[in-house]
Amino acid sequence: MNNSGAAVEVTKDRNGIDQILLRNPRGTSARVSLHGGQVLSWRTDRGEELLFTSSKAIFKPPYAVRGGIPICFPQFGQRGSLEQHGFARNRTWIIDENPPPWHPNGSNGKAYIDLLLKPSEDDLKIWPHSFEFRLRVYLTADGNLSLISRIRNINCKPFSFSIAYHTYFSISDISEVRVEGLETLDYLDNLCQRERFTEQGDALTFESEVKPSNGKAFQFSESISIDRVYLGSRDVVAIFDHERKRTFSIRKEGLPDIGVWNPWEKKSKAIADFGDEEYKQMLCVNGAAIEKHTHSSRALGCPFKLRTASNANKKNP
Ligand SMILES: O=P(O)(O)OC[C@H]1O[C@H](O)[C@H](O)[C@@H](O)[C@@H]1O
Predict the structure, then answer these.
(1) Residues 72, 163 contacting (CB under 8 angstroms)
(2) Is the pLDDT of residue 181 over 50?
(3) Quick one: signal sequence residues (predicted)?
């Protein structure tokens, strides 16, 4: 516990993997696993969980955890030669015991942890670029959850990568939510071989079937799903959950794009990773950068920041 009342505790999960519990002075908490450097939980001071995790999630390698905030790196989706979403979500990260300092007073009231990932020799065989990935996860004094990533190029040879914070938000029901901030943007539809379309609606809703943008029928019957990457989006996107009267505001920096995914698709491969109809209780809205380059320098790269706030963290007046 530091003098502002913020606490950081390292414990082991039931598979013996270290996890870090962050708690801010008002009782908001977050849990981060070294498996994947993945945030698995973000709770209000009343104990309400704000992130979704599947009841079928497996919390140990070689499985990626279905829920929380997987870090997709060095590849987001299938745009590259690696396995889907890259390997970072499947590796064991370490805690940096001597993290770089915050700017003066920057850590006030914050509960935070710095994690590091460096490639193993096996990683270098499939992706021959030396890097150090530094992830800082923190809870602010008012309960917002923030992630900041910096990628350092270690051997000076420039490389490209993509990155995403694949955030599984917990929602009441997919038909009860709307997403604002994506209006008029162009997006790539993964359900149409990444063809480019322009968002027409005022806000994104899921009340009825979301068809592939080219209007063609799904290849499966009964398919309802969304899987898009919105390009060059505004830095604030909001999810409104009408039934729970809850709003999530997602503020990103250094991340030009936003992925939106819900596998409401009865025959989607991912469906097997969810309990009965559980996929209706989550929506992934992912701050992403589908194309980034490092320069030939060992300097820390520009930060990728994601801050999520929820009105569920606000005290009742
Ligand atoms: O099943 P996973 O590898 O965790 O991926 C889950 C989903 O991630 C992203 O949102 C992709 O755009 C989807 O196509 C993919 O299905």
Answers:
(1) yes
(2) yes
(3) none
Predicted TM-score (pTM) of the model is 0.93
End-to-end CA distance of the chain: 28
Ligand 1 and 67: CB distance under 6 A: no
Give me the pLDDT at residue 21, please. Answer: 98
Question: What would the CATH number be for the domain defined by 7-313?
Answer: 2.70.98.10
- Take atom 11 of ligand 1 and give the residue whose Cα is closest: 77
CA 253: distance to chain centroid?
Answer: 14
pLDDT band (50, 70, 90) for residue 221: very low
Ligand 1 pocket member 259 (CB < 6 A) = yes
Q: What is the chain's Cα-based Rg? A: 19
Q: Which residue has the tokens 């502002």?
A: 4
Q: Which residues have C-beta within 8 Å of that of residue 39, sequence separation ≥ 6? A: 30, 31, 32, 51, 68, 69, 137, 145, 147
For ligand 1, atom 13, name the residue with the nearest CA: 227
Question: pLDDT by residue (tens digit) across 13-69?
Answer: 999 999 999 999 999 999 999 999 999 999 999 999 999 999 999 999 999 999 999
pLDDT tens digits, one per residue of 144-168 = 999 999 999 998 889 999 999 999 9
- ipTM of the assembly? 0.98
| Spatial separation of the C-alpha atoms in residues 310 and 301, rounded to whole Å | 29
Distance 77 CA to ligand 1 centre (A): 6
Closest CA to 136 of 170, 113, 169: 113
CB 304 within 8 A of CB 254: yes
**Domain boundaries defined on the chain:** 7-313
